[in-house]
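Example record used in the benchmark description.
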Amino acid sequence: MRVQVAIIGAGPAGLLLAQLLQRAGVEAIVLEQRSAEYVLGRIRAGVLEQASVDLLHEAGVGERLRREGLVHDGIELCFGGERHRVALRELTGGQCVTVYGQTEVTRDLMQALAASGARTVYEAQDVSLHDVDGDRPRVRYTKDGVPHELSCDFIAGCDGFHGVSRTCVPASVLRTFERVYPFGWLGVLCDTPPVSPELIYANHERGFALCSMRSRTRSRYYVQCSLDERVEDWSDERFFDELRARLDGPAASTLITGPSIEKSIAPLRSFVAEPMRFGRLFLAGDAAHIVPPTGAKGLNLAASDIRYLSRALIEYYRTGHEEGIDSYSARCLRRVWKAERFSWWMTSIMHRFPDTGAFGQRIQEAELAYLVGSRAASAALAENYVGLPFED
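Model output (structure tokens):
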């Protein structure tokens, strides 16, 4: 089979790229190792930068997002038993974020691609990439026991941190940077009204906590925990008792609890792979970078990569120009590293580290006090939170 672009991975990055290319008349196929039901069952991020919202509208999948997404003009930082609001819209000249779950983004993209007749192969096994540094790369896979081979012009590796795409870049070419954090997030999803209309980031002596949501009736809560913890040891009652202990009095007293519908522990890491292009292979999303979720950048960075990659490929097929293709990695990485810095910084000021000590704790408290007391510092946080500008 011959196709212009082979996309490995049917997460938001791969599906969004396929949808943008499909609308521009570029032929693409998506290969996904898991089933469609499994992909939809993954619980992930839910805070979208305005640029990500705009890109989803550009892809023609913004109607439900417009109806159901929750626009947030600010976030709240809780420390010392008090909450302090960072007014995102006011501090950035009108920009904001929208809460809309990654599962819903994935669902919208799946439906749009199915309606357009685009090809997506789920449960594609034994996917392997060949000749990615040549003029005619190939992708081999097995479906229902039958082997298949695709020849293509380009391959987009959107198959995540553990996917096959990044392993196809020679070790002599690929350079990786990583920091693994000494704690994780214990997360609970429940069908209860959020405790606050805006996200609450809490720094407490017992550890970090985050109050988020997926809708007006579905809440997502997190507490910092040791990597030695087991989900089985955390009853719903224990979790919500711990969450209350880390919030300010008004939030703790108004928190509505309910049975969890999902509970998991996620380790935190920062990771970047350079370059993001090797020959005809492009890495995008988690295949190229991971951020701790504190800064709400994971899904947004994936969308950022796809924005650059889709424009580069569409330009190539319309004009033959390769400028966007050649600059893809450098452009993406400049934005990636700024998001990595912001996510690392947010993590460092909001979490308790095992080796912080009394001095480090006082520095953290001073940092937070300066942050909420200085308009310039608050504006810097807001500018990064809503998303930095693109290179156009």
